[in-house]
Amino acid sequence: MNVLRYTFFALAAILSMGAGLSLFADPASPASANELASRLSGLREDGSSYVRLRMEIKGAAPQTLQLQIKQRVTSSASEILYQVLFPKERKGEAVLLRRTGNRAASGTLFTPPNTVRPINDLKESLLGSDLSYEDIITNPYAWEHQAIVGNETIQGAPCQILESKPGSNDHSTYASVRSWIDPRRMVPLRIEEYSGPGKLVRRIDTTRVVSEAGRHIPADLIVQGTKQGSSTVIDGSRIRHGVAYSDTDFTGDGMKDLSPPRGGAE
Q1: For strand 77-86 and strand 63-73, is the pairing parallel, antiparallel, or unpaired?
Q2: For residues 176 and 188, what is the distance between their CA atoms, to the nearest angstrom?
Q3: Which of 39, 159, 198, 227 has the CA that lies 20 to 30 A from 91?
Q4: Is the peptide bond before 87 cis (omega within 30 degrees of 0)?
C-alpha cells in the first residue's frame, strides 16, 4: 500500500500504495498467501525515488493539488516526504512520514512560513484527501497473517483476494486489509481497509496500469473513505528512480525545500 510507496502506495505509492508500489510481473502463479504477500512486499523497490502527481479531492470542499513526493526506502526503514507545489495558497505545505522496522510510524507537518508540529494520529487525513497518513507508510503485505479468501474478476482481470491481518508485533489501526491482486501483472487492482469485522474504512481502486521496463505500475487511483460524497482521484504523471538525497532532505529543514532532487532515471 504503500499507496503509495506505490504512490499507494508512494503511490507510491503510494503510493505506498502510495510513491510507489513497483511490482514486477511473474508468470508463475503464487502457491500460497504467504508467497503472494512476500512477492508484493519484497518487490517494493529499495532505494530513492521522486514522483510528481495530481490529487483531485472531490466533495464538499473540492480542490486540486499538485504534489511532489521524495522517498527513500531500505529493507529496514522508510522515509516519505509529500510537498504541495500548487495551488499558490497551499504551496510549501509538507508531510514527512517515517518508519523503522516494524515499530510504529511517526510523522511531522509543516505549514509555511514556520509552523511545524508532530502528527499525533496517523488516522488523520493526508492533506485533506480521502487517504490517511497510515495508508502512505503502512505495508500490510509484511504483516504476520496472510490468507487467500476468494477470487473475483476486476476490470476483466481474474484476481486473487488476499486478506492481510497484523500480528502482535505489527503496528496498525486496521484490523485487516483485503487486496484484489492480478497475479499475472502482480498489481493490486483494489484494496479495502477494515477497522473491524465488516467495518469498511477505505477503498482504493486502480483505474490505470502502465508498463515500464517490463514491470507494471498502478498509475491512477480513486480513493473512497468515510466522508459522505467524498472521493480522491490520484493521477501519477512522472517518476524518477535512483535520485540523490541527503539526510537533511528528510528533516525539518528539508521539508521547507521544494527543490527537486538531482540525477535519477525515468
Answers
A1: antiparallel
A2: 16
A3: 227
A4: yes
Asked if residue 7 has pLDDT above 60, the reply is: no
- At 6, the amino acid letter reads Y
In the structure, what pLDDT confidence band is assigned to residue 209 with cuts at 50, 70 and 90?
A: confident
User: Which residue bears the cell 511517526?
Assistant: 106
The secondary element (H helix, E strand) that includes residue 41 is helix 33-42
Per residue in 221-232, pLDDT (tens digit) is: 999 987 788 899
- Convert the pLDDT of each residue in 59-94 to its tens digit: 888 999 999 999 998 767 889 999 999 999 999 999
pTM for the complete prediction? 0.85
CA distance 122 to 210: 30
The CA–CA distances, whole Å, from 11 to 2, 153, 204 equal 6, 23, 11
Q: What is the pLDDT of residue 201?
A: 94
Spatial contact of 34 and 146, defined as CB atoms under 8 Å apart: yes
Cα separation, 154 vs 5, whole angstroms:
22
Residue with cell 479531492: 57
The 10 Å CB-count burial string (b at 16+, else e) for 76-85 is eebbbbbbbe
- Contact between residue 133 and residue 120 where contact means Cβ atoms under 8 Å apart: no
Averaged confidence pLDDT in the chain: 84
Residue 63 in grid coordinates: 480542490
36 alpha-carbon distance from chain centroid: 18
Of 24, 23, 26, the residue nearest 9 (C-alpha): 23
Residue pointed to by grid coordinates 502527481: 53
DSSP element (H, E) containing 202: strand 199-212
Identify the helix (H) or strand (E) that includes residue 36.
Answer: helix 33-42
